[in-house]
């Protein structure tokens, strides 16, 4: 189990295999908004920077996921 500080430190320091915290979640087994949020996180973690969503895309997806809230 990791603590918040441990996660931040591992993400900030470059590791030969980038650290990604384990997410206790299976896509397709909860409500649609949680599925969309988890997919957005996974997309942001893409190893190829060009394939990651930019901030405007993330903001737009957040609006859809939160229904404009």
Describe the structure.
- The protein has a domain of 45 residues.
- The chain has 69 residues and is mostly helical.
- The chain contains three helices and no strands.
- The model has no long low-confidence stretch (mean pLDDT 82).
- Helix 2 runs antiparallel to helix 3.
Task: Describe the largest sheet.
Answer: none
Number of helices: 3
Average pLDDT confidence is 82
Which percent range fits the helix content? 40-55%
**Rg on CA atoms, Å:** 14 Å
Taken as a percent bin, the fraction of beta residues is under 5%
Q: What are the segments in which pLDDT stays under 50 over at least 5 consecutive residues?
A: none
Structural class: mainly alpha
| Distance N to C terminus | 32 Å
Order of helices and strands: HHH
Q: Given the C-alpha coordinates, what overall shape results?
A: globular
Q: Would you count the extended β strands for me?
A: 0
